[in-house]
């Protein structure tokens, strides 16, 4: 037998199939690998000398990462997908029905199809190393587990726990997997040989006791089971847009197949999976997965001497506190420069509050949190900065104050330290002018809240070295972030494209629509929050400052809306931070519309339709995004789309802002912008790039040659 991906051995009546995919860093269940796996099963299933099968991996930190997503991406025929899925089901059924027991030994990532393969084994054991993670992430790709996962998992760990894993794509470690009943034993990686041999011995001697099922009694009765499904549906409706079909279809499938025989359930699963895998939403989400994998490789080819370890933060507002917490979690040391020493307790309380989630969810112990907080030291001067590798300021948006901060930093940090600004809108080139070492200065723009938002814009000046960029990218990735390179301009990328969305909502409000109507329509489209809710969360003062900077930089097309001027200048509203903005906020996170704003508006009967609200708010972003491509602020359209999804929550199932534009049609976008330009002014005048795309019959994803020369 030719074996390229799986090594078979038989020793002492124990067969081992070791996955080691040829020319790949990870093990994936491609059709070729699965055919080879089936051949091995055929070769051993009738061998009466075999008493046990072990399934292992030769890859470091990887068991099996899942199915080969590339193969799913390229398939567009529902019938073909169904046939492939059914053939995989047959292989897993063959594994499950072997005459002797099987054990999956999981040391590293066990995801998607890899976990479904493990579920078909008699037993699963795992190491408790940090790299050992188990999950069904398929829902994030617009699909659901399609190789028997929706059928075997509820039978193993119960309905309630299964729904949580399948509908959310949640990742669990070995300890949590053991508590759920997903694995039968877990142990440290250093004890892998001893513990696995001990478990193997127990299996061969029939000494492994079946673990007691911890299913809720509610799952045994049809009436109460319906309550579980109803509650799960209600939770989905609250959190997941109805056009993001994967979780809804998975819930429907599990409800319809629960209690069915395995063979009937997997057949239903295969048909539902095939139907879902050809949808535009799934194709968009799979494309975004590959885009994110591509972005993770940026600047990895650039070599540098030492990694960033010791950090400093100047500024302790909302953003500053978020960055302090992040660095305390991932950096070696964290030094804070305060205006007043008395501020430190407020900072530590804020960090502790963010860590509380990890303690509550058992991802960290209180002792581990204390260790992280002990990394933080503080000063009201600039002393103790000589060992700092990376210093970032997150103070007010004032060029003079920022430049003075950099002067003090350069005088106190070590000679190779990187200095960064978290500015959201001020030119990095202009901020770098007085620095002695301009090559070690750049913008590092986090998004609020820092603990949740994955995107970080990295903005070099014309002087910034490749080494400084590469070191910063590596450090941010270690912090669990997704850095993306953005050119230097007012507002950079995300704020420059997003502010027109908030601003346009103000213009629409001025003409007669209500705050609630506008926000609801935009949420129906798929935005995580409406424009006015977003303005409150960001802070009306912050949004207004950025809007003014953009108007100063881009002129009439970025004119600040009268509504935004009114709520900031006349009404002095700040938003969520002081409980009063476009909405009135309470301490429980609830909000009601601020009726005082309507009282200050001139009543107008020019009410926009739902379609026009969406078109005006989204198309004006598309127009500005096209200018960012035109100017080289970002080089790749796919990177721009990823940034808008990760930085603003633009609905991922739509593929991104410019993928949505392509789907709507460039001709339609241009025609609408021209129409709105006549009605509402030059802020809607189509960009030169949009006209070029229309004239050349190109889309954003096919017309790269029109802006990259």
Q: Catalogue the unreliable spans.
A: none
Helix content: 40-55%
Distance between the termini: 51 Å
Structural class: alpha/beta
**Going across the major beta sheet, what is the strand order?**
13-12-11-14-15-16-17-18
Query: Biggest sheet, in brief?
Result: 8 strands, mixed
General shape: globular
Helix segment count? 29
Number of E-state strands: 20
User: Strand portion, in percent?
Assistant: 5-15%
Mean pLDDT across residues: 93
Can you lay out the helices and strands and say which pair or pack?
Elements lengths: L5 E6 L2 E6 L11 H14 L7 E6 L4 E3 L4 H6 L3 H19 L5 E5 L2 E3 L1 H7 L3 E5 L5 E3 L13 H9 L1 H10 L2 E3 H7 L4 E3 L4 H13 L17 H18 L5 H13 L4 H16 L2 H16 L14 E5 L3 H13 L2 E5 L6 H17 L5 H8 L2 E4 L10 E4 L5 H14 L5 E4 L6 H4 L9 E6 L8 E6 L5 H13 L3 E4 L8 H17 L4 H11 L5 H8 L1 H15 L7 H9 L12 E3 L5 E3 L1 H5 L10 H21 L6 H12 L8 H8 L1 H15 L7 H8 L14
Parallel strand pairs: 2-3, 3-5, 4-6, 5-7, 6-8, 7-10, 11-12, 11-14, 12-13, 14-15, 15-16, 17-18
Antiparallel strand pairs: 1-2, 8-9, 16-17, 19-20
Helix pairs in contact: 1-3, 3-11, 4-5, 5-6, 6-10, 9-10, 10-11, 13-14, 19-21, 19-22, 19-25, 20-25, 25-28, 28-29
């Amino acid at each position: 037998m030719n074996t390229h991906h799986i090594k078979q051995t038989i020793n002492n009546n124990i067969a081992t199939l070791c996955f080691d995919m040829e020319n790949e860093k990870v093990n994936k269940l491609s059709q070729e690998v699965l055919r080879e796996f089936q051949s091995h099963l055929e070769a051993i299933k009738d061998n009466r000398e075999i008493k046990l099968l072990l399934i292992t991996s030769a890859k470091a930190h990887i068991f099996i990462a899942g199915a080969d997503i590339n193969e799913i991406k390229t398939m567009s025929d529902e019938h073909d997908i169904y046939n492939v899925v059914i053939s995989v089901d047959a292989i897993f059924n063959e594994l499950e029905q072997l005459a002797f027991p099987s054990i999956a030994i999981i040391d590293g990532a066990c995801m998607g199809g890899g976990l479904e393969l493990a579920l078909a084994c008699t037993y699963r054991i795992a190491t408790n190393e940090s790299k050992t993670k188990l999950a069904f992430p398929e829902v994030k790709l617009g699909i659901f587990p399609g190789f028997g996962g929706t059928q075997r998992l509820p039978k193993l760990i119960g309905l309630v726990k299964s729904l949580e894993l399948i509908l959310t794509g949640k990742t669990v470690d070995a300890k949590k997997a053991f508590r759920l009943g997903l694995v039968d034993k877990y142990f440290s990686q250093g004890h892998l040989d001893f513990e696995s041999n001990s478990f193997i011995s127990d299996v061969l001697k029939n000494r492994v006791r079946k673990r007691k099922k911890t299913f809720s009694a509610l799952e045994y009765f049809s009436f109460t089971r319906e309550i579980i499904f109803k509650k799960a549906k209600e939770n989905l409706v609250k959190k997941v847009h109805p056009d993001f079909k994967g979780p809804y279809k998975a819930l429907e499938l599990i409800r319809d197949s629960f209690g069915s025989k395995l063979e009937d359930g997997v057949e239903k699963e295969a048909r539902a999976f095939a139907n879902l895998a050809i949808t535009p939403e799934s194709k968009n989400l799979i494309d975004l997965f590959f885009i994110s994998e591509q972005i993770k490789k940026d600047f990895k080819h650039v070599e540098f001497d030492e990694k960033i370890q010791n950090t400093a933060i100047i500024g302790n507002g909302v953003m500053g506190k978020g960055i302090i917490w992040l660095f305390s979690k991932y950096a070696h040391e964290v030094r804070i420069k305060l205006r007043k020493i008395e501020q430190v307790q407020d900072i530590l309380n804020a960090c502790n509050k963010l860590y509380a989630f990890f303690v509550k969810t058992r991802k960290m112990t209180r002792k581990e949190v204390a260790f992280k907080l002990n990394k933080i030291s503080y000063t009201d001067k600039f002393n103790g900065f000589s060992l700092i590798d990376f210093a970032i300021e997150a103070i007010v948006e004032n060029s003079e104050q920022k430049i003075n901060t950099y002067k003090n930093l350069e005088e106190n940090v070590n000679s190779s330290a990187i200095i960064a600004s978290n500015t959201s809108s001020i030119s990095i080139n202009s901020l770098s002018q007085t620095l002695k070492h301009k090559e070690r200065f750049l913008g590092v723009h986090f998004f609020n809240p820092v603990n949740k938002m994955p995107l970080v814009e990295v903005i070099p000046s014309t002087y910034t070295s490749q080494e400084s960029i590469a070191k910063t990218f590596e450090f941010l990735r270690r912090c669990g972030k997704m850095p993306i390179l953005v050119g230097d301009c007012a507002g950079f990328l995300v704020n420059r494209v997003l502010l027109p969305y908030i601003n346009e909502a103000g213009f629409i409000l001025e003409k007669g629509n209500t705050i609630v109507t506008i926000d609801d329509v935009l949420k129906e489209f798929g935005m995580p929050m409406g424009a006015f809710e977003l303005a409150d969360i960001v802070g009306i003062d912050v949004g207004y400052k950025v809007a003014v900077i953009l108007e100063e930089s881009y002129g009439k097309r970025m004119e600040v809306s009268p509504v935004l001027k009114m709520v900031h200048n006349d009404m002095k509203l700040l938003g969520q931070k002081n409980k009063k903005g476009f909405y009135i906020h309470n301490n429980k996170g609830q909000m009601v519309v601020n009726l005082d704003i309507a009282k200050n508006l001139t009543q107008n009967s020019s009410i926009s339709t739902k379609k026009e609200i969406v078109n005006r708010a989204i198309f004006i972003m598309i127009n500005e995004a096209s200018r960012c491509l035109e100017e080289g602020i970002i080089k790749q359209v796919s990177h721009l789309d990823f940034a808008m999804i990760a930085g603003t929550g633009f609905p991922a199932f739509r593929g991104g802002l410019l993928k949505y534009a392509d789907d709507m049609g460039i001709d339609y976008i241009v025609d609408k912008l021209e129409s709105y330009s006549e009605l509402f002014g030059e802020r809607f005048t189509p960009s030169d790039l949009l006209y070029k795309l229309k004239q050349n019959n190109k889309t954003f994803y096919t017309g790269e040659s029109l802006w990259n020369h």
